[in-house]
Design goal:
The chain is mainly α. About 90% of the residues lie in helices and about 0% in strands. The radius of gyration is 15 Å and the shape is globular.
Length: about 120
């Protein structure tokens, strides 16, 4: 397997994870609008979306890499979380708010990617 193939697979897995995230967030926003779901349900939904998206990315990267799938899945979850943090920081301009939920978000994303890698 070439390095270029590995990088392309990694980028593809991340892009698909963000597409899954976008679609699921759109569905969650629609449910909020239509049914007025509670903040607790929205928080659960966002948590579920993080795990689902990184799990999908972990499965994809695990199938591509064939070896050490759980490590590749963890790495894709880590990069996914890092990009979320960077975008959140650029949008809000406030690192304090991001850091309050940062550790749990990071663990969810890394864990979701690792689980996906192991299941691939």
């Amino acid at each position: 397997m070439t390095k270029a193939y590995g990088v392309a697979s990694f980028v593809k897995a991340l892009i698909i994870a963000y597409v899954v995230t976008g679609i699921m967030l759109f569905v969650l926003a629609f449910l909020m609008y239509k049914f007025g779901i509670s903040e607790q349900a929205v928080n659960f939904g966002v948590t579920f979306i993080y795990i689902l998206a990184t799990g999908v990315a972990g499965i994809l990267i695990g199938r591509s890499m064939k070896q050490r799938k759980f490590l590749w899945g963890s790495l894709v979850g880590l990069i996914y979380a890092a990009l979320i943090f960077v975008v959140s920081l650029l949008v809000t301009g406030n690192a304090t708010m991001i850091m309050q939920d940062g550790v749990s978000t990071l663990l969810l994303c890394v864990g979701g990617g690792m689980l996906g890698g192991m299941l691939s």
